[in-house]
Amino acid sequence: MEGIDGMGIRAAVAGASGYAGGELLRILAGHPEFEIGALTAGANAGTELGALQPHLRPLADRVLAETTPEALSGHDVVFLALPHGRSGPLAEQLGDDVLVVDCGADFRLHDAADWEGFYGSPHAGTWPYGLPELPGRREELRGTRRIAVPGCYPTVATLALFPAFAAGLVEPDVVVVAASGTSGAGKSPKTHLLGSEVMGSASAYGVGGVHRHTPEITQNLGAVAGEPVTVSFTPTLVPMSRGILATCTAKVGPGVDAAAVRRAYESAFDGEPFVWLLPEGRWPATAMTLGSNAALVQVVLDERAGRLVAVAAIDNLTKGTAGGAVQSANLALGLPEDLGLTTIGVSP
Amino acid sequence: MEGIDGMGIRAAVAGASGYAGGELLRILAGHPEFEIGALTAGANAGTELGALQPHLRPLADRVLAETTPEALSGHDVVFLALPHGRSGPLAEQLGDDVLVVDCGADFRLHDAADWEGFYGSPHAGTWPYGLPELPGRREELRGTRRIAVPGCYPTVATLALFPAFAAGLVEPDVVVVAASGTSGAGKSPKTHLLGSEVMGSASAYGVGGVHRHTPEITQNLGAVAGEPVTVSFTPTLVPMSRGILATCTAKVGPGVDAAAVRRAYESAFDGEPFVWLLPEGRWPATAMTLGSNAALVQVVLDERAGRLVAVAAIDNLTKGTAGGAVQSANLALGLPEDLGLTTIGVSP
Amino acid sequence: MEGIDGMGIRAAVAGASGYAGGELLRILAGHPEFEIGALTAGANAGTELGALQPHLRPLADRVLAETTPEALSGHDVVFLALPHGRSGPLAEQLGDDVLVVDCGADFRLHDAADWEGFYGSPHAGTWPYGLPELPGRREELRGTRRIAVPGCYPTVATLALFPAFAAGLVEPDVVVVAASGTSGAGKSPKTHLLGSEVMGSASAYGVGGVHRHTPEITQNLGAVAGEPVTVSFTPTLVPMSRGILATCTAKVGPGVDAAAVRRAYESAFDGEPFVWLLPEGRWPATAMTLGSNAALVQVVLDERAGRLVAVAAIDNLTKGTAGGAVQSANLALGLPEDLGLTTIGVSP
Amino acid sequence: MEGIDGMGIRAAVAGASGYAGGELLRILAGHPEFEIGALTAGANAGTELGALQPHLRPLADRVLAETTPEALSGHDVVFLALPHGRSGPLAEQLGDDVLVVDCGADFRLHDAADWEGFYGSPHAGTWPYGLPELPGRREELRGTRRIAVPGCYPTVATLALFPAFAAGLVEPDVVVVAASGTSGAGKSPKTHLLGSEVMGSASAYGVGGVHRHTPEITQNLGAVAGEPVTVSFTPTLVPMSRGILATCTAKVGPGVDAAAVRRAYESAFDGEPFVWLLPEGRWPATAMTLGSNAALVQVVLDERAGRLVAVAAIDNLTKGTAGGAVQSANLALGLPEDLGLTTIGVSP
């Protein structure tokens, strides 16, 4: 990685005109080790970035290239923020020594049948999973040259629930209901995403286990539980641009008490730079995490219902996508895990 | 009810300066049979309504009286939109022939221990429960002179789930996660309810079964199930003024299939004037119900998770409070149940 | 108008899938004299209304026809909610005895050069202007069979300023800055109208006198002033679905005092069913008018700046479009002007 | 300033529990030269910051001291984010060599009569004015030990209009209409600032020249114009937490053309690190500036109306308060003006 000793680590961003791409650029522009190289896009190739991402003034004059292996060559790191199914072929042409960080879904799932069932195309493979907080993953990420960045919902749901499985506290049957801001649905204009439609409205979609993030949550929790976990996942859309609040619950096993629950979560997040288990009695709000890489978690035992209830909040574009991508890239490159990232949100 | 043949049914509203009171007035002003009589308030007594509820122009010059039995006497119907614990003593002094419709919690619960545990005061009693859609309730409401209007969360959660229990489809262990607009938290100024705090933020509160609406949901579903039902209820606050979206799930029993689920819901809501079981594939959004008395419901069977997932949306101030109150009052007074109410929302 | 004595006045709505069309249907469905006939659309022809306008439950099963003269024939009233330039050819084929109410711009302007300059197409003509509050207009509307419904910005700006011109208080050089909700921009999906883009953002557009509503405001104020009026109009977009707040100012002439200003506005709006000159010291907020046909106005004299400042608020889809259309249609049909309309807003 | 060579410049923040204080801390925490010292508050003294400003995780354990001269002593810089009238007495006890940066209004105005007329208390004095972009101010700020941070509205209105006066293009009679997010109104709970009230609503307040920022705008523009400038200023509140969009207009003098206007603005902002004169045809949106110190400006000549129209957007808490404060403090301390500040916003 010659860049480290020279002029910085050269990073390209494919898909620079979308929301994930814009957030990657916001973070990379403030990162002390990265130098922003090629910016590429699909239909927006040829346009100045300033016309598409006017919040990124220092990069306003950059012209977007077309997303091709050639445009992306010559970089130390390539961040892919592309529609599903586009990362695989591209990655193959990028060289094994280039760090490829895929913010798409292509390489997240282990099970080819799951992939095909939910995405309807051949499975591209599986890359190291960019959720360092998940047991065993941080080690896997150090020095890797391929990273599958988790989905936004799986990030927050997994952080909320894996400590309970790690400590053997709950039954392998969970319910996750998550409220998401609209940026998770992307920047393509669709009627149901118009401001007039979403302001003042909460709505459900992808109900009944059909959302593509379901198998990813299942995979994460199952790996920690050491047994299959059944996941009922319902995403909802609420009137804000950013943020996901996930409410997650599972039945506790016999004899589990509040102290054990608290202990499990304290232990799971001890020393984690980006997960904040809130003091008891305080609950996460997505606004606390705006633009930050923090995940806020709280957990409680509902004794009457015999359930553990964990709630977690993230910024879907930061910890849920671009911040998580940079966190894992830092690990892969041997940099401090939190370099260029913050736990301070923009609030109110 | 002499008013019916004369100048209209005289209705008083106690608590006219709050959000529930304002919504009652909005509906009553458009109701063909009601005549709006005394308007009372606590700290706002002596103020013109126009300074407090400027959206109610035709009533702008009305001066609020203090909430006393005297001020409320001489009416056919008294709607109470008061803080918890205030309805009981007042109602005793209103005469048995007056229809008293309590939008507060005082008379909702059957179990005195539940009341005392969740509200911390002596139980005032139990009145007929104003959710006509719930099996057996409509009959109880006809001709009654006392109505306990359901809480907003219990309204939407009960409508989402009771058909499943009525048909014996699910296990008595449910999870309800609801996203609510801020008007449900009332009009008293509190820092965490400031626009600066709530815009752009989704947050959880009352997690772990401690929200006061929990025993009410439990009571409703248990009555239909014929056995105790365990309820895990998590309310969340999202950035909109009105609306609740409830996501509700329970394990299905053996052999339950999608057709049985659909059939149960179609049967439960057949002929209901205000509940709309959406066509398959469409999902509720709260904006569809703004200002209307409609409840939108959809349900699906998640075969992988072995769960029924029902989602329902209402306007918390209309069907969830004031509209529900008028619907039940109509029944009590022998009027058409839907008189003065609409299923058309203000959208977008 | 045989319908009045029979089954109601048969009304068709062309453009029923858009926001203006939806609002027309919401109002017509609650109007005691109208019967809703044909609903037509362009690209959405063949679709059930329930899939497009799910807030209109009673009309959910109606299938949209294609917008043709044939589909619209056989009605007493035809409301047109179509893109600019489409109303003229259609209206010609609808029969002179049919009341045609055009919510588009085609017939608003008197000056063909203005039309061609701002709209870039040949001028279709001029119809009676549907702003009954404007001096002389109410009389013109009675019995007419053609109505040009004003634009939303001209409605609110004209109401805010015409009393000052009617009383000769101000110089013919005005500044209007208006904040609008996003529904005014319509339902066609565009990136800059996405919820993710508009939430949390106020932005200007059409700055420098280029917005098409500029000549309409100029025309209205000039007619009252009896001399040409110069208008600087800047529209801005703010994060809400509905509502326009217009801040309007002009230099006062010599000797004009606060009492004269107040008197002028009281006189202009005396007896008006839908304009509410607020008590002194209270200022309009768009939320007061949500779903209502009210226009709230306040005015003050800034003695230091030598300026009258008037602020007005409306719901752009109601008083600013569909409500204004029905108000004028009532006049044309000899019905009470306020029939089927309300001054009560949905709030909070 | 010994701190520069040692452990950083020690900065205290008085008023750390409010919105301005929180934003100061967000910026200071990321500033490479500042070390955060005492945090003080009024009623919130004794509370952990994490309970009040949960978005500032690294400072969550800090306990707020009471705002006294003693608590604030021993620092190189003291930022005051206090209610009006509180800064004067405090500043006197802080030592002449301490840099005192007042985010309040106390020391902004030159004219004692203006102060007394608008604030109703004795005038405390006048400090160097922290708007480096204003001609002559940057020099005045270098090395100063007292800074009066401009108000949020004056910041944006002055940036939008001073170039026109500097180039002698316009008459001294301006209209400013500004749309602000709610955070400008502070964190004290008031009914009209509740989320339920502000979401979905645009409203005017302080109309008619009575807003306290009026004389500050007048002072700034008059100083550049070299003659008295008449200002008509109307602030409005729109449904977002942060951001101000100001629409500003004045009549142009004879012979002024579009090229002269463009040239004047290009010249005024040439080399400015934080003001971005947008490319022609693009218009400011507040969301572009979220959390950034950027001010976006656009200007156009409306030839028909004979007016220059300038529109500017800032984040009221950043460039409008805390970012502007740090920018000026950088100058006072001999640091690079843009140190610790960014022109990149958090978007969408």
UniProtKB/TrEMBL annotation, chains A, B, C, D:
Check the record and name the SUPFAM superfamilies matching this protein: Glyceraldehyde-3-phosphate dehydrogenase-like, C-terminal domain (SSF55347), NAD(P)-binding Rossmann-fold domains (SSF51735)
Question: Which reaction is recorded as catalysed by this protein?
Answer: N-acetyl-L-glutamate 5-semialdehyde + phosphate + NADP(+) = N-acetyl-L-glutamyl 5-phosphate + NADPH + H(+)
Annotated transmembrane regions: none
What name does UniProt use for this protein? N-acetyl-gamma-glutamyl-phosphate reductase
Top-level EC class as recorded in UniProt: oxidoreductase
Family named by the database record: Belongs to the NAGSA dehydrogenase family. Type 1 subfamily.
Active site per database record: C152
| Record-linked InterPro entries | AGPR, AGPR_AS, AGPR_dimerisation_dom, AGPR_type-1, NAD(P)-bd_dom_sf, Semialdehyde_DH_NAD-bd
Give the pathway annotation: Amino-acid biosynthesis; L-arginine biosynthesis; N(2)-acetyl-L-ornithine from L-glutamate: step 3/4
One annotated Gene Ontology cellular component of this protein: cytoplasm
Chain's gene name: argC
Q: Where in the cell is it found?
A: Cytoplasm
Give a GO biological-process term: L-arginine biosynthetic process
Q: What does this protein do?
A: Catalyzes the NADPH-dependent reduction of N-acetyl-5-glutamyl phosphate to yield N-acetyl-L-glutamate 5-semialdehyde.
Give the EC number(s) listed in the UniProt record: 1.2.1.38
Q: Which UniProt keywords apply?
A: Amino-acid biosynthesis, Arginine biosynthesis, Cytoplasm, NADP, Oxidoreductase
One Pfam entry for this protein is Semialdhyde_dhC_1
**GO MF:** N-acetyl-gamma-glutamyl-phosphate reductase activity; NAD binding; NADP+ binding
| All copies of domain Semialdehyde dehydrogenase NAD-binding, residue ranges | 10-142
Upper classification of the source organism reads: Bacteria, Bacillati, Actinomycetota, Actinomycetes, Streptosporangiales
